[in-house]
# Entry
Amino acid sequence: MKRRTAILSIWMLVAAGGILHAEDGSRLWLRTDTTAQAQVIANQQSATVAVAKKELQTQWQGAPVQLKIARTAATRALGDDGYTLAGSPQTSVTITAATEKGLLYGAYHLLRLQDTQSLPAVLDMAESPKYARRILNHWDNLDRSIERGYAGRSLWEWEKLPGEISPRYAEYARANASIGINGSVLNNVNANPLILTNEYLIKVKTIADIFRPYGVKVYLSIHFAAPKTLGGLPDADPLNKEVIQWWKDKVKEIYALIPDFGGFLVKANSEGQSGPQDYGRTHADGANLLADALKPYHGILMWRAFVYNPTKEDRAKQAYQEFVPLDGQFRDNVMIQIKNGPIDFQPREPFSPLFGALQHTQEMIEFQITQEYLGFSNHLVYLAPLFKETLDSDTYADGQGSTVAKITDGTLRPAQVTAIAGVANTGDSVNWCGHPFAQANWYAFGRLAWNHELTPEQIADEWLRMTFTSDENFIRPVKEMMLASREACVDYMMPIGLHHLFSFHVHYGPEPWGYFPDGRPDWMPVYYHRADSIGVGFDRTEAGSNAVSQYFSPLHEQFNDIKTCDERLLLWFHHVPWTYTLQSGNTLWDELCYRYDRGVQEVRDFQKTWDRLEPYVDAERFAVVQSKLRVQARDAVWWKDACLLYFQTFSKLPIPYDIERPVHQLDDLKK
Ligand code: GCW
# Structure
């Protein structure tokens, strides 16, 4: 696949007669070329101020800029990362902040206004982020493979560190700083204990030193049993004094190397990982053990709520059941990190009922930027609408308007720390993310982490102008395509609340028939769709698994009732007869057929849109996107045929005659 793309790109460059610049995507959204030497002065100097200065000197095309650190009541109110922009691009501009990091973010804001042609005549704005910690989670292993990574190998060249330093470390930090991301968990939550050896910590320190001027803090995922596996202790029991001391010493060693180390991320008693329950202790015991060790250094402990076991209980209910009884038992530097939905980063899920349910425990959200379940780096799926859908969901936890955003950003639940995480989609491929449009998802995560009130449309607009061109003839149709792409993916993969129909393990193509007698039932598609001669869908109503009861009123009742349940989530909550009539007037069966078909047709439209835009795009990126859309279109047909032909064996109903006929046969697909 890669080779084909490369050959295509070369061909396109030749075809274009070498007129267009080669654009390999490596510059992301930071593509301003200017010979301008802007005048920039600062009232204080530091490594971070130097970055801000250099960015402005080399890219800013307006009047002189003054960078001012001022610890006034006004700047302090904007927090550590906030800033104000004042003056006029024609005469003089002043960026004021309480800290050097604020200046850096202010500088990138000014450049973004320039690069998106949105500079006002008079600058008068104050900004501060909604979340204090805006973090990427890398599922990168020490051997440089990436769990669920689709853009090459890990950026971190562990074998070469600390001696040899890739220029990409600084480029990565710079890209993050430009969108406000200020933290990076370097290693996989399925953590290798070796990361905590002194040998690796010195490598981590090297990376942290490079990130620091860009305001990006380093965090690590830890292996809960490290005191045993690394430290040689007989166990890793969180109440064992030796274990407590081991962690204290380890944390001290880390902070001696990295004074601004961010903290730990932990996956414990989840999918085979060790944890406090191995010793009859609770998640709170485990989290507090580490939080106490980190506390003197202002480190935070992010404890994941992604826990479930192959029991009779509905998987969607298990995280809530485990954590709600522990509410209030966690230290104030613990964050419970909760995936956006109750299962696992599906194309569409309801929000996790844990949001708002923990009344006395700090909660943070985890999104997945890497497209494990959304077509890898092959499908163009713009994720801002998905992120927004969750952030804007009303939990009703503290009455109407208790959106997930307001529950987690400190608005409704005053918090010591606020944070938001996204599982990164970066790798060592030249364009960082595999698909040129996957860069938009990294960008969108950063922008929403800074300000969750931005719309997906605004973010797409910014990103397109910076990444491609500001020509309206290009922006308009491509923005439309991006905004439609997530819903198209839901349609061709799992419409109307279907979920987890993926091929086992790989999570790429469809395998709705997936059933392995020896495997875990909760990893199999048939567990989730429950198709039979009557209908399809998982009954999570009061009559079924009663997962609806984990939602606050009135959601509980709305989800419970087939007539009021949001139809986008119908088969998530209900087992619905094939002939049940939906709001569209279609039966469930017909509607399923139309949705799958609509998904396919949308991708065909994306292809048409893109092909028309050839004159506006450099040859290289044009060709890459074109070939990836082709793959996406083929995959969409594959999904549609596999799901419809398989479900038809239960519904026994005809596929409506006005939609595209299957081109595959079920038996072939099953092979
Ligand atoms: O989505 C699932 C993935 C696993 C992942 C796990 C998790 C890192 O399939 O690869 O492991 O979730 O989030 O811990």
